[in-house]
Each structure stands twice: as structure tokens, then as C-alpha cells.
Amino acid sequence: MLGLMQEQPLLISDLIEHAARHHGEVEIVSRRVEGDIHRSNYRQAALRSRQLAQALDALGLEPGERVASLAWNGYRHFELYFGVSGSGRVLHTINPRLLPQQIAWIVNHAQDQVLCFDLTFWPIVQAIAAQCPSVRLWVALCDEAALAKLPGVEQVPNLQNYEEWIGGHPSSYQWPRFDERSASSLCYTSGTTGNPKGVLYSHQSTILHAYASALPDVMCLSARDSVLPVVPMFHVNAWGIPYSACAVGCKLVLPGPALDGQSVYQLLAAEGVTFAAGVPTVWQMLLTHMAQHDLKLPQMQRTVIGGSACPPAMIRAFRERYGIEVLHAWGMTELSPLGTLCTLKNQHLSLPEEEQMQIRLKQGRAIFGIDMKVVDANGQELPWDGRSAGELLVKGPWVVRDYFRAEGPAPLLDGWFPTGDVATLDADGFMQITDRSKDVIKSGGEWIGSIDVENIAMAHPAVLMAACVGVPHPKWDERPIVVVVRKPGQELTREDLLDFYAGKIAKWQIPDDVLFVDAIPLGATGKMQKMKLREQLQGYRLPGL
Ligand code: AMP
InterPro entries from the entry (predicted)? Predict the structure, then answer.
């Protein structure tokens, strides 16, 4: 027997219409490429998304065809999220930090029909336009005057400015109703090996993720929040924040191209931001800036940090110096992206601060909708004892089933997606990542998790960034070394740091060497690139070998 409730597909267009109707005057504040601060609101965003949908109809774009973006977090990019997906097309957000030839490969693989770009990325467009025959229209996210100032516009045929493109269309629009399983957006993983792989989200997966991510034990978003996603809208849809923001009606603050500590601080302070989200490397810049200038953020309450392991020193700094709660989160492009988030349970509230901290360091508990387990090399499930480490497998309605136009076999094992992360699960369901499976250091038959080694280094006051990698050893197979960037003006010797490890981890887990460098290579989403680091270390020999 079927239930007798209304059958309405879960569609992204409903998010923007809800926000416009119920939170129409709530602000969307953007720092623009032009350098100024732009103020809009949900009502305006809905009007302009409808104009954009009309422009796509006029172009004759079929349902499911791809519209790409190469853009920072800003109001025009926000409009693309709704105008493109809401009208039945697929928004393909491209990471502009990739190399032009990688971007051209992705555009061709996705067969993008339209590509919208911020002016910053004009050199990329110039470099790839001739190699991307599928693109019928190039749209500069600006007005006529700004486009006229670009050098070499005549080299790219079919180029238009966004304001003129959507401006001629009416702001009324009947959003189409269709199957909620239809594709809505596309994001390629920044895979370190092989070609990038496209994760194709649906309206259903996106809306379920938006509901789940606003829950109190997840991001706890509400109409009283002012939210700043530092995480880019080209990195897994800014962790879904544009969608959940529409559902709850919070103020949105979009930082544009300026992601340095000072610029982010200015926006956080000026716009009364209560909640922000980003990867650890960005927050490190903010913390350094705040410490140098003795600044505070009295309105900010909490921040979600994920994308790579959040060092304990960062959780402590936010909490103890600034009274800001850090919510450690784990996710992947393949999970839309949220899988777990770390919030305490009732039983933990009476624990001493230090014991609570040990829990906060974990990546957290599964969000309802996500199921998880850890398995050994034979695929056998391991106990939830907080010690047994194995590969983390997940499943759920916002987890990938297959990649877009995949060449290889589907990734699932018995319906579970293998994450490539090595993790433990404890009796309370808290998951902790110890490593990426390819980064684990195997020393004398034992595993050393590089994240532990890095976290200790990061707790040293003179360390800005630390990466632990394994290097070959004739007796032990591999031994860990730690590569360190010192904070500006700080003294730190190899011996100081090795002494700092004493008593914090087992002796055999302590790195064999410390290398000081000016910078650790970062990938397109701000994560440390250990592959590149290992390449740079080729020829390095451990002391005494
Ligand atoms: P991406 O798809 O580029 O977002 O990368 C996903 C990968 O980032 C995961 O498989 C993890 O290896 C890593 N990751 C994400 N969040 C965390 C976290 N909180 N701690 C450790 N690693 C993380």
C-alpha cells in the first residue's frame, strides 16, 4: 500500500524560490573580482536566476547539457547554481587552480556547452578556447564595460558578458518539474593519479545533503546565522552551503578571490559572521594574521574544518584564544561531500576538557543517511574498538554510484564505496582517519599514520606547516620523516623538533629526520600534495645510510 502524501520531486529550483519567498531581504554579500563589496539578497538572486534560466532556454540548451563555471565564491556564481540546475541543465564547477591543459581535458570530457568565467581566469580561457570545440558560448561574469577592458577579446569567438546575456530576459519563469534523480551538477575529483573523475550529483542527492548538513549536530545552520564559506564553490559545491543556506535563510558572505588571512578577517568581522567553513591551510593564514595583530572575532561561534586533517593545535587555538568552536568534518567529492562531523554526545559533556579534546580531534560521527564500516585487506569488517584500522567504506543516497562517462569499472564493492582512507571506528561511532591508504608509512610491518606525526609537529609554536612522508629504508622498508615550514621569524632546529616528539608517540613512530623547506606543495583545493613532495625528495637519503 502506498502512502497518501503529496508526491513532489525534490528540486533545486525550490530552494531558491523558498529563500526568495521567506527570506527575500536576507543579504548575499560578495567581494568581487573588481575589488569592491557587492550587496544583493535572495529575492534578487531568484530574479536573476530566472533570467539566466530564460537565457539558457533561448540558447536552446537541452536538459542535462552542461554549463561550466570557472569562478570564485560570488553572487553571480551563486545564480549559476540555481539558474543552471533549476532549469534542468547541469552546472559543472571547474577548479581554476588546475593547469590549463587539465581544464581543457575536463571541459572536453564533460562536453560543456557554455563556460562562464570570472575575469581573473581570462588567461585560462584564452589558453583553452581553441581546444574546446564543444563550448558554444563563453560568458565573462561581468558587465559590458569590464569586458571591454580585457586584452585580446577578439581572439575568443562567441564571447559575451553575463549582465548583457541575462539582462534582456524576463525575471518571471516557470521552473520545469522533472524526476528528482536528474543530474544537477558535476564536479571532477582532483585525483592524484590517472585522469580526473567526474562525480555527477542529482537534485535528490543535493537536497537530501542540504537537509542533513543543516542539522544541529552537523553545521547547525539557521536564519540567525551569517555564513562565510571560504571553501570554494568549485570544491564540491562549497560543501553544499549555497543549497543549505537557501533552505534555512541565513545571510551569505562570499569572499571572492581574496582568501588571505587579512581579507578573510575583514569580512568575518564586518559582516558579523557566526559560522565559516574551510580547509586547514586557509585557517592557518587567518590564525597567523589574528595573532600578529592581536585581533578577536566576538561574533563568530563556530567553524567547520575539513578536507584534510585538522591539527589539534588549530582546534585549541580557535577554542582557547578566540572562543570559537571547531567542528572537524570529513568528506569527499564522491560524498557531496559530507560524511561525518564531530560533535560531542551528552555522555561526553561531563568529561574533563582534555578527554573531550581527544574526541574533538576525531573526524566525527556519521550523518544520518551515511552508513560506514572499516574493513581489513580481505574485506572483513573490523571491530568498532577505536584501534583496529582499515579501509573506510561508505554508502548512502548522496554517495557516488559510478563516475560520469567512466572508463573503468564502477567503484562500488557490494554496494559500498571504498574511500581510500584508512580509519578506525570507536564504540560510540566516532570515526578517525589515520591516513590516505597510499600515504600510510609501513615500517617493520607496522603502520605509522602520517597524520599523527604531522599533528604533533603542528603543535610546536614555531611550526607553520608539516608533512610526514615515508622514505625507503633497507631494514624497515620505510621510515617517516617530517618536512616542515617554520613560522616567519621563528627559530627551530632539527633536534628541537625531534625532542618535542619524545613521550608523545612511540619511539619507533618518531620521524628519523626533519627537513626544513620554504613551502610544501599545495594542490588545487589547498591540500598538501604528498605525491609532489615525494618527487621533490627523490635522491634524499636518511641520515646514516
Ligand atoms: P576531496 O574529494 O578532494 O574533497 O578529497 C577527499 C579526501 O580528503 C578524503 O578521502 C580524505 O583523504 C581527505 N579528507 C577530507 N576531510 C578530511 C579530514 N577531516 N581529515 C583527514 N582527511 C580528510
Answer: AMP-bd_C, AMP-bd_C_sf, AMP-binding_CS, AMP-dep_synth/lig_dom, ANL_N_sf
Compute the distance from residue 340 Cα to the ligand 1 centre, in Å: 11
Q: Is 17 a catalytic residue?
A: no
- Name every residue whose Cβ is closer than 8 Å to that of residue 430 and which is 6 or more positions away in sequence: 342, 359, 362, 363, 364, 365, 386
* Distance between Cα 307 and ligand 1 center (Å): 4
Which of 310, 332, 335, 422 gets mutated to test ligand 1 (max ligand atoms within 8 A of its CB)?
A: 332
| pLDDT tens by residue, 258-308 | 999 999 999 999 999 999 999 998 899 999 999 999 999 999 999 999 998
- Rounded percentage of the chain residues whose pLDDT exceeds 90: 86
Q: Whose CA is nearest to atom 6 of ligand 1?
A: 332
Q: Cα separation of 139 and 160, whole Å? A: 5
| pTM across the whole model | 0.91
The answer to whether the beta carbons of residues 237 and 187 sit under 8 Å apart is yes
Q: What integer pLDDT is reported at residue 193 of this predicted model?
A: 58
Atom index in ligand 1 nearest the CA of residue 525 equals 3
For the Cβ of 525 lying below 6 angstroms from any atom of ligand 1, the answer is yes
Whether ligand 1 lies within 6 angstroms of the CB of 424 is answered as: no
Measured distance CA(83)–CA(235) in Å, rounded: 19
- The residue whose CB lies within 8 Å of the most ligand 1 atoms, and thus the one to mutate among 193, 308, 314, is 308
Centre a 10 Å sphere on the Cβ of residue 232 and count the other Cβ atoms it contains: 27
**Beta carbon of 190 within 6 Å of any ligand 1 atom:** yes
Atom 21 of ligand 1, nearest CA residue:
309
Per-residue pLDDT tens over the stretch 85-121: 999 999 999 999 888 999 999 999 999 999 999 999 9
C-alpha R_g of the chain: 24
**Mean pLDDT computed over 53-62:** 98
Residue 141 gets which letter from DSSP?
S
Check if 189 has its Cβ closer than 6 Å to any atom of ligand 1: yes
**Structural domains present in the chain:** 12-209+236-244 (3.40.50.12780), 440-536 (3.30.300.30)
Average pLDDT, the chain: 95
**Grid cell at residue 14:** 525550490
Dist CA 485 CA 518 (whole Å): 6
- Percent over 70 (pLDDT), the chain: 99
Taking only the tens place, the pLDDT of each residue in 475-509 is 888 999 999 999 999 999 999 999 999 988 888 89
